[in-house]
Amino acid sequence: MTKKKRIRKKHHTKLRKIPSVGYFGIFILIFGIILVNISLISTNNEISTINNEEKKQNLNKIDPNSAQDEIIQVVTSTALIKDFVDNIGGDAVKTTGILVEGSEDPHTYEPTQSEITALVEAEIFILMGREGLEPWWEGSGGYAQVVLEDNPDLKVVKIMNESMIRMDPLTNAPNPHGWTSPIVAKEMCRNIYLNLTEEATSAQQDDLRESFENYMTKLDGVINEINGNKTKLQGTKVVMHHPAMMYLYDLLGIERVAIIEEQHDVEPSAQHIQEIKEIMESSETNKIVHQTNLDHDTIVEIAKDTNSTIILSAPLIGMEDYFGNTISSYLELIRANIQAFDNPLVADDLSEGGYIDGLSLSVLIPVAIFSVMGIVILLKKKKI
Ligand SMILES: [Zn+2]
Questions:
Q1: How many domains does the chain contain in total?
Q2: Average model confidence (pLDDT) for the chain?
Q3: At what angle do helices 21-62 and 355-383 cross, to 10 degrees?
């Protein structure tokens, strides 16, 4: 008998002698099942949300005397604005459409025919209202004129004013991403609130005021969290892929030294990439702020060559955080962008088939191993 066989035999007899091995098998099987369930929870949540939405709509259809006619119907340009509207509007307001969703990029967005139809049929359309951010609306070849010709009664609410926008010293252009500061977000919400109130009945106005004030308190809470993190992050030097986080980083005292993206959706030149590497070296910067909806390759290259870590930022709802979880509210978004600094990625996380694949594999492989082990041990026990 070879040594290997002896060991195997020894193991087998040992296994047979332990009476609790059946319980152990059951334990492992249950553990496997729990892990599988955990990995499915997020999907289930989405499904149940959709079901609730459907139920709500059906309920509204069934009751002929419902306040359906009085409910203020709103189309929003982004999921971020929908989140503001849902929080401020409560039961008085219903969002009937969002145009730019998930990882869609507002800078390069093109509405579909059905989205144009939704706008032509809408009562109120709420958007950020900055041409640099939403060129598809008022930019050259934008759809504002077409939509307003067909729907002249459409109330168009732009929630960003000139005063919320600052020049970006790194691009020498106005930076349109004001909402990444909750202080600016509060002003945007006030604009939404004032416009919704104009359309509301007096009973709805009371509801609106209450939910608006509640949401303002929540935004103040997140501003306090920013101040709490200021000491930790102040002076941190970063290079930005895209200039979206300027407003939040200014509040946190994070120092942006350069921007990789020269023009949106255009790959930076080799010369610019070389300049970035030199700036990083001379300023001793070793963090690159990236977004999942932007091209990974340049970031991987710069991170490897400068030995830097990658901070994953998410300026919009529907994008994924550093764990691959979808961000579903503005409050979550601000927190995820702060916590990203505690969870830096390395270049390999992005280059090896993407960080999300890596994460799901790291969950699924143990799940599979535990489940198979559980089944094998149970079967063995039965045979014995
Ligand atoms: Zn942007």
A1: 2
A2: 82
A3: 130
